[in-house]
Specification:
- By secondary structure, this protein is of the alpha/beta class.
- It is 30% helix and 22% strand.
- The chain contains nine helices and twelve strands.
- Strands 1-4-6-5-7-8-9-10-11-12 form a ten-stranded mixed sheet, with helices on both faces. A two-stranded antiparallel sheet has the order 2-3.
- A hairpin with a 5-residue loop joins strand 2 and strand 3.
- The radius of gyration is 19 Å and the shape is globular.
- The two termini are 23 Å apart.
């Protein structure tokens, strides 16, 4: 507990606030979704001719028997690429589609070089959206609805979190990958400053251009190659514009792999429920209180949730009533 107290104090000092965990609210995970659907999925492997015939495989998880217009969420795995990559993050598709989202799990293939991979993954996201818009990946008849591709969500772990920041408008040294169809992001275990294409300090802020809602989730035991600890991964939150709708949860005791989905069932349940709530509010316009984000399915591991609301960085306890 002393170690956790030091982490809380350090986060508070860096953010200029005393961050406090809000008590669990009346809403539970089952209440996030008003409907529950059977889920199916279908695979596609379109080829991007504009990038030397780069294949971009993806799976679409969809609610069977859906009617109306469905919000869409893309999911990007971490690492430098995978031949398929589906199994790593597909649990988000299975869960979120049950609540009426259409979830696209992208398998970012290895690039020709590490230098190319940084542009390739955000370009993969835009290519997948282009493919869906053009009808190049038609969903089976048992879907029954249509896709809202005007306001799309993105979940990404590790390098996938970089991908989400890139398409959300991060100011990167190697290009501008903002896709205006991306309306809200959930970066899990994102990179901090001084990381290749990222900024080297507050005066060179890669995240200052991100003007859409974001929910960062970080493990309390995560380290980077320099053993900087989890605070390094909170840097994007610290440097987001202070114009509201930015959230950060630190789950004490979790390492990088556990944040990617290898954690205990209660940790995974926390990730799923609170990310679902975030997108329910910021993609579908649900009237849930944003103060509930970070309060559902609290795991045995201690969590700390902070936020930037329209008034700037504030203590969650002052913004959210007990």
């Amino acid at each position: 507990m002393r170690k956790y107290a030091r982490l809380v104090a350090a986060v508070g000092a860096l953010l200029g606030l005393v961050a406090t965990q809000a008590p669990a609210q009346a809403l539970d995970a089952a209440d996030v979704f008003t409907d529950s659907y059977a889920v199916a999925h279908v695979d596609f492997t379109p080829v991007d001719a504009a990038r030397s015939d780069r294949p971009v495989p993806f799976q679409v998880y969809y609610p069977q028997g859906f009617s109306g217009e469905a919000s869409v969420i893309l999911v990007s795995h971490g690492g430098a690429g995978a031949a398929t990559g589906f199994g790593y993050m597909q649990f988000y598709g299975e869960y979120l589609a049950r609540g009426g989202f259409v979830v696209v799990v992208v398998a970012h293939r290895p690039s020709a070089s590490d230098r190319r991979h940084a542009p390739d993954t955000p370009l993969d996201v835009s290519f997948v959206l282009d493919t869906l818009e053009s009808g190049g990946a038609p969903l089976p008849a048992d879907f029954g609805g249509s896709l809202n591709l005007r306001a799309v969500g993105h979940i990404g772990h590790s390098f996938g979190a970089y991908t989400g920041h890139a398409v959300a408008g991060a100011d990167l040294t190697h290009g501008d990958y903002r896709d205006p169809r991306i309306a809200a992001i959930a970066p899990i275990s994102p990179q901090g400053g001084d990381y290749g294409q990222y900024d080297n300090g507050p005066a060179d802020n890669s995240w200052s251009g991100i003007a859409i809602p974001s929910y960062i989730l970080v493990g309390g035991r995560e380290i980077n190659g320099h053993n900087d600890g989890p605070l390094w991964r909170t840097v994007p939150f610290q440097r987001y514009p202070a114009d509201g709708n930015r959230f950060l949860t630190v789950i004490q005791g979790q390492n990088h792999g556990q944040m990617g989905g290898d954690g205990a069932p209660d940790v995974k349940a926390f990730l799923l429920a609170n990310i679902a709530l975030f997108f329910d509010i910021y993609l579908r316009g649900a009237d849930h209180d944003p103060c509930l984000i970070g309060s559902l399915n609290l795991p045995q591991a201690t969590t700390i949730t902070t936020r930037k609301m329209p008034g700037g960085p504030v203590d969650i306890a002052l913004t959210c009533a007990p």
